[in-house]
Each structure stands twice: as C-alpha cells, then as structure tokens.
Write a structure and sequence with these properties.
Chain lengths: ~230, ~230
DNA sequence: AGATTTACATGATTTTAATCATAAAAATTA
DNA sequence: TAATTTTTATGATTAAAATCATGTAAATCT
C-alpha cells in the first residue's frame, strides 16, 4: 500500500462523470496506492469500507468456490470502478474479491465520501445506474452461457469479450496476458478443459498463441462458436 | 391486452419511489393491461419501447437457448419492475423475454415518459441504482453457482430463493406454483435431473411436495446444500 | 544463481448431468 | 365430455467435462 503514485484526477469513471466543481473534493478525499502483481486488494467477506477505481493496471473481480476454484466475474481496466458493494441492501461485506493482475495504481474512496458524491452528483448516479444496467445485461448473458453453452463456446465468448475490453496490440494479440487458469476461471471451466479447447482452436486455425499472448485469426469462426445453438 | 383492469397507483416500484407530485403524471402516462397465464409480454429480440411493472400476478424473466431451452433469470412479483432494457448502452432490443406465470395485471410506461421520470426524480434514479446493485449481486452468486455448484445445490438455492421472494402460505408451502420445468430452468438444469434431485430431497425428508406445491421441511439441511463446498 | 513455487502440458479415469425413449396423469380447450 | 396438449414420471444410454496423476518449463524469490 505505497502511497507515492498519484492519479491525474481525470481518468476514472468517477472523475469523468461528476461535475467539475466536485473534482477538488474528490482530489482531497481520494487515496491512491500502488499494487503489485497478484496483490489482493480486498477479499470476499472483508467488511466494506469504500469503493475503488483503477488508474493503472488491470484487476480481476472474482468469486471463490471452495479452496481452489473461482469464477472471474469481470475485469476492471483503466478507469473502471470496482468494489461497488457500498451500494444496495446488506452492503456490509464484499461479496467478491479483487486482485491485481499486474502492478498498478488504485484509487480508493471511502463510503462516506462516496455517498456524499452520489447526493451531490445526480448525473454521476445516473451514469452509475447505466453502468449497472450494462453489467446486469452481461451477467444475464453469462448466466445463460454457463447454464447451456458448452465450454468451447464459453471460451470463444471469453476471448471475444477480452478483445472487446482490452483491444488488440500492434502485434495483433489481445492486449492482456492471462494465465490459462485465469482464462479458465473467466470461462467458468477447469484449466485442463480450457487447455484442450484452446488446442482445438489452434488446430482449427481460429487462434494462434505465443505463450500467454493470444491472437484471434478467424474472428467469424470464433463468433460463430460463441453463438452456436443460441439461435436455433 | 385488455385495458379494463387498473392498478392503484401506489403499489409498484415506480409509484413507491417517485415524489408524490409526479404520481398524477404517472397515472396519466401508465398503460395497464391484463395478461393471462402463459402470455408472453415481450420476447427476446423485440424492439424496446418501454418498461414494465407487475401489479397482479407473477412474471418470469427468461433467456432462451436454442429452441427448447431457457434460463429463468428471475421472477418479478407484485410491484416489481421488469424489462429495464430501456437503460444502458445498445438499449434497442430486449435481451430477455417476460412471460406471465398466471393471470395478472401489468403496467407499462413508455421509454420517453420513463426517461422524464428519471430526470425529475433523482430519488427514484437512486433507488433504481440500488435495485440494480442488488440484482448484480445476486447475478454474481448465480454465475458462480452455475459454474461450480452441483445441480442439487442449485436446486436447494433455487428453493430458498423462491421462499425468500414469495414467502410461505398458510399450508406451509412456498407461495408460488412452478412447473418442474420452470424450476429446472430457474436452477439451470434439465427437467429430468431436477426431477431426480427433488426425489432425493423427498427421500432425505428435506422437502415435501403436493403436486406443484413444495414445502421446505428442513431449512437447515437445504441451506447446507446450498452452501456446500463454497466455504471449504 | 540456485531453490522454490507457479504455470503449462497431456493422458487416463471417473463423475455428473444431459439425452433419449416411452408411458401415464393432469390440465386445458374445442 | 372428448380430444389435445402439457406436465409428470422413470429407466437406459451417452456425452461432456471434471478429476486424478505426473512430468516439464517458466517465473519468482532468496
């Protein structure tokens, strides 16, 4: 929890959606700190004290199952809000964990100031509601996929979602490096199964890989896999 | 779409959360209509025109998979909002379907008036955001369960969720009658598997059934099943 | 740099739950 | 009320994916 690194007060979801007059208050109340790769920012069951934003780096938001399984709910990248359990009923403990995927800078806002922010910034509240509506929409898709779509389709969907969120870098790779285990946890399957599925995708010339880097070669086929049977 | 039956303008989520001064506007702009059992209120892919509330009856919100599978995302009961796809990005088509589980009365608000309502009622917007936060929380649990929890646990969880939402009637039954197929679709499994699981629950004296009516006899055991392995 | 931990790789086996098949009962509708 | 549709019931079979087991490679920590 080093406190040196500072954000620019204009990048995150909060700074971008609140009225300019409120920014000094944000600057005065925010707490920046840097995290290193693999650092747990908060863990399922921890008491809720505030809300977080990503300034640098990527964070996985995940939910544990037993000792050694988890589901990655989503990724928070530059600017994104996470830990929004300050809101809603029974908002006393984080229902999910948040872990840094790489070194980065996090911004923390305590509950009290966040609630003041909501009161003062109806526009921000509105934006937050829209964000939740979109999250909910994605969650609905993911639930259906987990219930009915085979692993291969879920992996295809996961790769497309990663491409959407992180984009493609100069070399043509999806611009995030995940371990196969994290990819598996994101797709909601085991490492071994995902390993086999990725092998199939390689065989079928749908993707190429280079270590953790993944390149989508045939977007259409991948897309078709992610849709399969949902249209019949 | 009979237009005779009218709601009382004080029961639904909208009427309860907006300022009183706005209620006449709501009354002037709402469109009530009655639905019969099994009636599809809107279907996945339909263009979005407005938002709905339940005044009487229960509605299932579901997402299709192929021709004959679906996942029931949630149930909307008296007062509940549904079809909130008016909000968020790409809010052009309903991503889910809504079907009446029994005869009832529905309230419809068109998009334009709903957006005006949000502008005029920051308090309502705030309540809606909290509602979404809670929905999201439940969705996170459901996703993890679909990914990792065995069907028996998911059925246990489903029964407890039904008890929570609909309560217990005088005879001690969960106060909603679902077909086994709907219970299966809510738990994210097939009819046959759920049938077998319910048989096990009967054998273990955890529930009793009487046709579609289900009574939870041993809440603790059911709760334990719905937790199993998530704590290890 | 060496030691240790974490991630990758892959085959064999087992388990779970879906699929298929078929019949009876119940509910709905003509 | 007869006819049709929907729901319930249940066994047999198959398929998908998890688990188990084991070795190697790569990354991280002293």
């Amino acid at each position: 929890m080093k406190k040196n690194a500072q954000c620019d007060n204009q990048t995150c979801f909060l700074c971008k959606s609140c009225i300019k007059e409120w920014l000094p208050a944000v600057a005065a109340n925010k707490k920046n700190f840097s995290v290193k790769k693999g650092q747990v920012i908060f863990s399922e069951g921890d008491p809720v004290t505030g809300i977080y934003f990503v300034y640098e780096g990527n964070v996985k938001v995940h939910k544990k199952w037993g000792a050694d399984k988890e589901l990655i709910i989503r990724f928070a990248n530059k600017g994104a809000i996470f830990g929004h359990r300050v809101l809603g009923k029974h908002a006393t403990h984080y229902p999910i964990s948040a872990t840094a995927l790489e070194a980065g800078i996090i911004c923390y806002i305590d509950m009290e100031f966040f609630e003041a922010t909501l009161k003062v910034n109806p526009q921000f509240t509105y934006q937050l509601m829209l964000f939740f509506a979109d999250e909910l929409h994605e969650a609905e898709n993911k639930m259906r996929n987990l219930a009915h779509m085979p692993v291969k389709g879920r992996v295809a969907h996961a790769l497309l979602a990663l491409k959407d969120q992180f984009g493609i870098n100069q070399e043509g790779h999806i611009d995030i490096e995940l371990t196969r285990q994290d990819l598996a946890s994101f797709a909601g399957a085991t490492y071994e199964t995902v390993f086999r599925v990725v092998n199939e995708l390689l065989q079928e010339n749908i993707v190429t890989t280079n270590g953790k880097k993944i390149c989508i070669v045939d977007n259409d086929k991948l897309f078709a896999l992610a849709q399969e049977a949902s249209l019949n």
